[in-house]
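User: I'm writing a tutorial on reading structure tokens. Could you give me a worked example: one chain, its sequence, then its tokens, then a sentence or two explaining what the tokens reveal?
Assistant: Sure. Here is the example chain.
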Amino acid sequence: MTNAPDPPADFDPSPTSFPPPSGRRGWAIALQLLGFLVGMGLLGACAYLALSNPKYREQIARLAEAPWPNLLGLLALSAATIAISGLTFAAILRPVRKLSRLDCVAVNGVCSMLSYLPFKMSLVFRVYFHHRRDGLAVMVISGWIGATGLAILAGLGPVLLASLWRGKVDALWWMVAIGGMFVAGGTLVLVARFLSSPRGWRLLLLAAEGTRLRFARRAVESRWFANLHQGVHMLASPRAVGEALVLRTADITIQAARFYLAARTIDVALTPEQAVLAGVVYFFLQGTAPTGVAGAREAGTASVLALMQGENLVVVVLAVSAAEGTMNLVMGAAGAIWIRVDRLFMGRNVGLVPGAPGPA
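And here are its predicted structure tokens:
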């Protein structure tokens, strides 16, 4: 746990409410619905392409007749990616607050199931659950999610850049991918440790004063900013960031393995290098999708594979998505039962975990 500076006098760790809406809610809703429909259209186009081409129909037939170990392997690898993401969230939060790893995996299962919906319902659920059940302030959760995203990007970015640059796994690929992880992760920790120190806090105050905007100084000294700043304290922990990078490395390996297994199952040639890039692109598009994960990730990943392979491997991508969708439903349902979602939405007493601050 890092040594955090004393927060401002008005700091209150109790949960806070969301900031008021900007007044453009109608446009935001329309854009979310439009993006969701576009994603569904792209997914439908991928399915149509797979079903309209005789060659791809043969691949689908081979997938349907695939040995059970191959199919179970795809499902197991998909379940592992869900679990690893939940463990990453738990690792990043630990310098500020220790939560059950199993609970975080269960929450991530529910979020994975909701990730197909627009309006970032998975994000809404994550914030709502940890606010109600664990007593975390909304802005603390926001800082936690932001810190986790930065840690994931530090592990994902170098691998993506190395794969796009080299196109193969050689010595330079390893240097850029693994070395880049260490550099990105170390930079995160060093910057976070500085910003979480008293000197860094004073720098933030000076920066706010330098804007000559009164609200900037008030914002930096406010309770919600102090809560949000907890995300910096999380990234200031070398152990938390290091654990997140190890988990991300394992996840990249698993992402690549399921593309490779799906390709072998339908007798399609896919090199390990191409499988790595496919897995990274798939995860990146999934994590950045603003209106639901389905559609854009399948079309985008299939397009990248087409550029690399010279032929469309849409059936491989759809096979991975089918396995993931199945496990999202299974682990989402199991996770909802484990964390007792009914207590959140049926007006029953939630019961905060020991040591959690009570709701405001």
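What the tokens reveal: Residues 143 and 231 are 4 Å apart (CA to CA). Residues 138-166 form the longest helix (29 residues).
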